[in-house]
Each structure stands twice: as C-alpha cells, then as structure tokens.
Amino acid sequence: MATGTSASATSEGSATNERNVEVAGGWPMLLLNIAVLCTGPALVVYGAVHAPANGAAMTAGFALAGALVLAAGFIMNFGFFALQPNEARVLILLGAYHGTVRRSGFHWANPLYARTRGRVPAKPGAATESANRNSLVTRRVAGLMGQSLSTTLSLRAHNFNGDTLKVNDKRGNPVEIGAVVVWRVGNTAQAVFDVEDYATYVEVQSESAIRSIASRYAYDHGEEHELTLRGGTDEIATALKEELQARLSKAGVVVIEARLTHLAYAPEIAPVMLRRQQAESIIAARQIIVQNAVSMVHMALDQLDHEGVVKLDEERKAAMVSNLLVVLCGNSDPAPVINTGTLYS
C-alpha cells in the first residue's frame, strides 16, 4: 500500500498534480506471500487431522479459514510489479488517482490498483455500405479493438521524427519542412489524466507547431536583418522548441530539443527558385571579379607610372584598361591579337 506522499509543481493551468508515493518492497512481500500460501493448506490439513475429535464444526471452521487464507495469498500475487530505471507507474484505484511510483526495483502495491488506464480507439478504415448502416456497432467494435494504455510510463527520452510537411512560408511560397523532436514525460499525472494519449498528442501538436513556425518566417531572402528559415538555423530551432513546450506542457511533456531536419522548396517552384539562386550566385561572383579586376588594373597602371617603364597618355591608358578588364573578367582564356601598326593607325 502507498505510505508517504509529496506534491510536485505542475504547469500553469493544469488541475492535475503529481504525487510521488512509496510502496512496499517486493522481496519482503514475496516471502510473506509464500508464507500465506503455505498457511492456507496447513490450516486445512490441521483441521482434518486434529479437529474431528472436537466435532465437524471445528473441521469446517479450519477448512474455511484455510480457504480464505489461500484466496488472500492468491490475490496478493497480483500486487507485484517491477520498474526499470526511468520508468514510473501511476496508481489508480477505482478511478481515483493515488500517486506515482518512480523508484526502480521490485515492488508490491494494492492488487486492486489498475493495470491499464483505458484504450485508444482504433482508427476506422474504409467504410463499407454495411458499416455505414451499422455505424454505432462499428464504433463500438473499433473501441474494443483499440490499443490498451498501460499505467506504467517510460520517462526516457523519445524521438519524434515527423513526416515532411508541405506548408507556405511568410511570403506564401510553398516549402517542404520536417523536424525531429526529442521529448520525455515530466509529469505523469498530467500525461495520464489531462490528455487521452500523450504520445499521439505529441505527434499532432508537433506537426501543428512546425506548420506555425514555417508560416512565420520566409524561406530565405527576407527583409534587412530578418530571420529566415534557411539562414537562422539555431534561432528557428529555439523558436520551435519554445512553441512546442507551450503546447505540450498541458500533457506534462518536457521538450528536450527540436531541430529542422528537412527544408526545401516545393517541387512545383523548385526549378524557378533554383534558377534565381544561380543567377544571384553569378551576379555575386561577377561583382567580386570586377572589384578585384579594377584593383589589379589600378595597381598595374600605378606601378608602370611609378617605375617609368612607359609613358601612357589617356587614350593608351583607356586601351590598356579595356584589354586588362577583358582578360581578367572573361570566362575563357584570352586570344591575343598582335598589332603590327600603331594605336592610332
């Protein structure tokens, strides 16, 4: 049975508080259970051997006592359970929450504590005409065939790697985005009682948060100093984690990390955006080439003039600048032309 309790804080707005409890050790109770199971048959045998001299009533009394003791020992068998590290069990008795056991090891608690906390209804498949005519029966059968939820919860870190979603960014461009979320259960009472199935809740809310984040930012090329999905990886991850924590705190879930794993333009606009990116890259490269070429031409003219190698008037300087820029900025190797005359002929 549960002995001590202590309250722990939960997220704001939740009516469910987790209470950590201590239960009896499994090994001492196992020895006691064995003794009880041995005592039941011993009472029956003792009544059969010694009680006849005292009458049939005494014999029946020993037999009844032995049966009751044996039944009690049999029921006690259902109170044993084991918890691994980072596991917890929620104690529910006749619909009432009695606390959470977090200590790992072999334990014994009230055998009447529930082993399951309900079922998740099975997702209906393709409906047939007969199913439509018997929709009520179909829903009841689906509920009975749903997944059973255990009162033992894993407190380990979980990974949710969602599907790639197609959403519109801040500018309305369709993009494909995917993320991975690392989470764990922080408050077992909230996870069990405030939502129907916390694992499904995490999946649905994660996809919703990813869509919300994608619609707030442009894919790239935002306004000046504007955060973008492609350019602000760390900032986007932080914003996504905060968004997820605000949503999942209702289920007692703690978000450890959230990060984008896939980001690309949707296929219908990807070729156009690729050509735009290529054009921007070419323009940026040309700007660098021209800047460096002008610097080299200026350096060459200054060095020729400083060392007195040749005296050039303005027209000859213009011709040299033109030739050097063609050589330095061209995409292919230059093909020199030999001038046998003069510049003015």
Can I get a quick summary?
By secondary structure, this protein is an alpha+beta fold.
Envelope shape: rod-shaped
What is the name of the CATH topology of the largest domain? Tetrahydropterin Synthase, Chain A
Low-confidence stretches are 1-15, 126-144
Can you tell me the CATH class of the largest domain?
A: Alpha Beta
**Roughly what is the average pLDDT, rounded to an integer?**
78
What integer value in Å does the Rg equal?
Answer: 39 Å
Q: By helix and strand content, what is the structural category?
A: alpha+beta
Q: Please report the total strand number as a whole number.
A: 14
Terminal Cα span: 113 Å
- Domain count, please report it: 4
Number of helices: 9
Shape-level CATH architecture of the largest domain: 2-Layer Sandwich
CATH fourth-tier homologous superfamily of the largest domain: Band 7 domain
As a percent range, the share of helical residues equals: 40-55%
Features:
alpha+beta, rod-shaped, 14 strands, disordered N terminus, Tetrahydropterin Synthase, Chain A, four-stranded antiparallel beta sheet, 345 residues, three-stranded antiparallel beta sheet, 4 domains, single chain
